[in-house]
Write a structure and sequence with these properties.
The complex is a heterodimer of chains A (79) and B (373). Chain A is α+β, with helices and mostly antiparallel strands. Chain A has 2 helices and 2 strands. Chain A has a two-stranded antiparallel ribbon. In chain A, strand 1 and strand 2 form a beta hairpin. The longest helix of chain A has 22 residues. Chain B starts with 9 loop residues before the first helix and ends with a strand. Chain B contains 10 helices and 13 strands. The chains are: A alpha+beta (79), B alpha/beta (373). At the A-B interface, helix 1, helix 2 and strand 1 of A face helix 4, strand 7 and helix 9 of B. Strand 1 of chain A pairs parallel with strand 7 of chain B.
Amino acid sequence: MTTPPTGKPAALADELARLEEIVRRLEADDLDLDAALALFEQGVACLRAARERLAAAEVRVRTVLEDANGTLRLGDLDG
Amino acid sequence: MGPADQVFSISDLTAAVRTILEGSLGTVWVRGEVVQCRVHGSGHWYFTLRDSAAQARCAMWRTYSQRAGRPPADGTEVFAQGRPTLYEAKGEFQFVVYRLLSTAGIGDQQRALERVKAALDKEGLFAAARKRALPRYPSRVAVVTSPDGAALHDIVTVARGRWPAAELLVVAARVQGDGAAAELVAALKRVNRLRVDLCIVGRGGGGREDLAAFNDEAVCRALAAVRVPTVSAVGHETDVTLADLVADVRAATPSAAAELALPDARAVRRLVGDLGARLAGGLSRRTRLAVERLERTGDRLEGALEDGLARRRHLADRLAAQLDALSPLRVLERGYAVARAADGRVLRRQRDFPPGQPFTLRVTDGAVPAHAD
């Protein structure tokens, strides 16, 4: 019953896409050291976020319920 | 070999025959003509199915006969789904029927299906160009199915083993029987109000159950209108439904759908590890390059400084030498002297020395008083 079903999903896809882009740019030659360091910092942040998301212990299964007034909400599924 | 060696009781015999009968064929469809359908007080139906050469006694238990509607009239041509067994109390072969469809009705259904298929095809709903790629790392997955069906169980099981980062949002709908199509349409519309990356729609069960809802025109259109990529999992290897043709990806079973839709977390962890290593490698390579460049620049700078200093030192030496050469003290040192009057005037010519005039001679180490004779 917690988060609204219309909220943004946790975006591991975004983190990994950014990380891939950062690594690609960092591996290219045309980069000065300051830019490389800034990229590296962003990359580490993405890496940490991605690892945290991957560390999620258990699949969440919830059921979508519709109220009488047509509002969608999430409920926990029994079992 | 005499009777004492091995004697079956009748019960043993019929039980053994029943096991053989049930184990060898399983569930099958047969076609035949209904004769003498008798409705028992318990709600079970008993009838005979026959063709021109043979007949089989059939029983349809109440659970199934209730779903079949009215008992078929004599002579009705039907498709019957069931399994052969042995009624042990009477030692009779019996065909236990689960579903009964009149062939005329089937013909109508088939024609309706072809009509819907042609219409959807004409509108391009099956076109390969429409098919969307599935997201690589879905976070939220809508699952349109029966909340207590095998399909959901299978999908959850695969998700647990494969992609624990997933959140599954179950959008409940009946998947067979009356009203299933309407519930599926409502559920698919609900999916468009959710923030999800992907939608799996399906049902479980390997048997030839009712697929009508997944051939329904409104269901197909609602599926085509789902805004995220769709995976169909109707759970039937041989029959392809229209919903399967509309979905972006067709999976043979709900488990297969989950496998297609969800990445393997172990592979993704490896990928993240690789990216981490490449990130660190990229930076250290970058800093190494920078250090090398800095060293090269330093060398040049030092060289430039040294060159400049040497040049300057040389110049200073030369200038110093010149200055030295011009110094009057150096001239005096060589033995010259400067004569000055008492007022300090330098006496350069003969006429500057009238007889008896005192003057001073400046030599290298001091002044000497003198006078002209």
